[in-house]
Fold Serine/threonine-protein kinase RIO1.
Amino acid sequence: MESSTSPAVVRPHEPSHIYTNNNGYDASVQQEIPRTLTAAHSHSLHAAESDDDNDFDDIFDDDYHNDDGLGPDGEPDLARNYNRQRPLHSNQQKPAANTFNSVDDQISALSKHAAKIRLDDVKDGQTRDKDKADRATSEQVLDQRTRMILYQMINRGVVSEVHGAISTGKEANVYGAVAYEDDLTKVQRAVKVYKTAILSFKDRERYITGEHRFKAGADKGNNRKMVKLWAEKEFRNLRRIHAAGIACPEPIQLKLHVLVMGFLGDRRGWAYPRLRDANIPAEEAEQTWSGLYIQLLGIMRRLYQVCKLVHADLSEYNILYHNKQLYVIDVSQSVEHDHPRSLEFLRMDIKNTGDFFRRQGVDTLTDRVVFDFVIAPGGPVEEPGLKESIEQLYASRAISATDDKAVAEQEVDNEVFRQQYIPQTLEQVYDIEKDAERIGHGEGDKLVYRNLLADQVVLPKTADEHVSEEDESDEGAALDSEDESDEGSDDESKFAKGPPRGKRFEDKDEKKVSAEINVILFFIIPHSHLPFSFKST
Ligand SMILES: Nc1ncnc2c1ncn2[C@@H]1O[C@H](COP(=O)(O)OP(=O)(O)OP(=O)(O)O)[C@@H](O)[C@H]1O
Ligand SMILES: [Mg+2]
């Protein structure tokens, strides 16, 4: 919104604000600041919401933005979180003139780092195809705001130099960087810069809508906010995945649309190849590819069970490979498993990765078997149990991979499974009575959601759970009222020790399917028919 074009109409005998009972001073009046002040800096008090490339307020406003909500011990820092919300609830005005001055000062102070961003320093062959490499130089030009964020990070030692792009894409560029740990040891880092001028975000809304962590939703009208939300989502997901011990880049720092993470590559700054480009010697190809396939199934299950996430864009392009190890990257679109479309996304991930491994000649399991393996509530989530379970799945297959007819049947099953409708909430179950009848007749394993029917049906809540649920809802309410997303409200460190998030963490409006379906089926089906959980032994 523009500030008033007429000079401020505040007369000496009138207060410069209107006080409303219970509502404090009306901020709209505060916007009427002298035109000279706004003109001098070409931004209004609402500049943070504009797309002005020269607006740096949110970059220097540290209390508010450079904060993940966690204290040094990884636990939520309640005092800081409270303080972060204060500007929204307080009547205090920013001392506008001083803020502007200090921004100017900071810009000139930070500009001394300009020479440390050397984007022409691209490693030969690092960008994968020649056209892309040629385009890289022009595409990787950084806007003023991004530069300023990087200068600030350099100033704080998060990185000490930023080099050429490792990858330039539609939505983000990834740059190589170096930092000095303990002021001595040189380490490589990767800096992912989301592009703020992109239009393809409308497609991404489906990943955010329905996420309880992003209840405020996406503000489609504001690219900058949208991109910030996206970077935040990647940072939080990375933190959760990393804490669970799944190989991925270590999340290091996030500032608006700039994410600094650990570098997956060698010490000289060469990034590991994508799985698609993995160079596996022919003599060990067969064994290595099947080993990697099994490793990936384990990763998908751990992601789902321990991190409560579905990657939602898992393919040979978003997995890096080194030395028989897979690294999961690009998790900005990953969703919580209670997202209304998470099972659809999971099925897509299974298809894409399965197709890739089939092309490498791996004898893969059917999509349905993998799907069940990933979502089955019982069974191991750690090695070596995971691998053993997969071996059992192979062993219990009725068919042999060398049998042409059996392979054809497998393909048909995959096709059928991919078309099958997956209900995710009770409302979506097409005909609950019919399904219940099938279960009663011992045909429950034909239901695509059978693994959501835990053998432990919903038990009455313990007193503990009641209390925790209230805590969570209080916190949620406070953060929902905030314009920002609920950054920091969710302590990711709890995912380090297995799956402690019980039903209390589920979104209240989108109650988890399994619970709902179970409750109903519990009453209409003999209990002895219920268990369908994946058996590991
Ligand atoms: N931590 C990292 N270490 C090394 N290389 C990385 C790292 N993160 C990303 N890369 C490289 O950058 C490439 C792009 O990263 P990523 O997949 O996260 O971006 P993206 O969202 O797919 O971007 P776009 O969709 O715009 O192409 C990866 O294929 C990988 O080669
Ligand atoms: Mg990618």
User: Anything to note?
Assistant: The CA atoms of residues 126 and 166 lie 6 Å apart.
